[in-house]
Amino acid sequence: MSRVVVDVMLKPEILDPQGQAVANALPRLGVSDVASVRIGRRIEIEFTGEPDLDRAREIADKLLANPVIEDFTVRLVEADETVDAHQ
Amino acid sequence: MTARVGVVTFPGSLDDGDAARAVRIAGAEPVRLWHGDPELHGVDAVVLPGGFSYGDYLRCGAIARFAPVMETIVDAARGGLPVLGICNGFQILCEAHLLPGALTRNQHLHFRNRDQILRIESAGTAWTNAFQPGQEVLIPVKNGEGCYVADPATLDQLEAEGRVVARYLGGNPNGSQRDIAAITNSAGNVVGIMPHPEHAVEALTGPSLDGLGFFTSVLKHLVGAPA
Predict the structure, then answer these.
(1) Hey, of B54, B56, B59, B158, which one would you mutate to test binding to chain A, going by the most A CBs within 10 A of its CB?
(2) Homologous superfamily, domain B4-222
(3) Which domain holds residue A61?
(4) Using one digit for the tens of pLDDT, what is the confidence trace for B73-85?
């Protein structure tokens, strides 16, 4: 079944303390070439019928993301593809 | 007639009992409201208490905003019903677009729990008219996502219209922009505050009795006393 994937990220100007905490932990892994880390959220939506991108956008705008602090993107993922292949 | 002040319980509310108790100590009748019941049962004002409604899933307050009781409260608040959102209640008011901006993760990432000095910046709201402008009060703060953010234009507008209700003094506990602890809507009937006035109403359990002023304010407001 086709799915709609919604990616929600904090807006660039909003401080992401979670991402900073992760970035600050990287040197302890021996990683020193990462400039920054930002953490967001991915939501996968399955419709009962055909996937509806407009409806997904409405869901994202009203509930999944808070437009005051977050941006989102909406995309379709085909049934026989893994989501990871689209990253 | 005794004023009736509703206190909403969502799944995951923590401070509804303390809020109802504060309402009673202030001299009003607390009326417990249930998230799934759209009826307001004739209350004269509403408190949205602190806690972790719906487990803080998605974003704090994001799901509570769609509770049946909230649809009624949003309409009533636009019509002038006094509404006080404390902590999670403040988050819910922002998610419901009754107040501008948003509450985000504390900048230092730690849950912060301490007694906090605030300066009352606006005594013109339904929930702060018992204070003097500039008055300093001591009430507990306890939050993990209390960092108030809004775009610069919104912050400037809040300042220009006197809608910053309280600011943190003696150290900002969460990184809130411009040290904002509480704001109001343009009509002054809806107030969101991150610290907890309901925990500062009795000598036995609170650091002061300063929190009582928020609850006595709404009683003054309801009888039409000038702010």
Answers:
(1) B59
(2) Class I glutamine amidotransferase (GATase) domain (3.40.50.880)
(3) 3-86
(4) 999 999 999 999 9
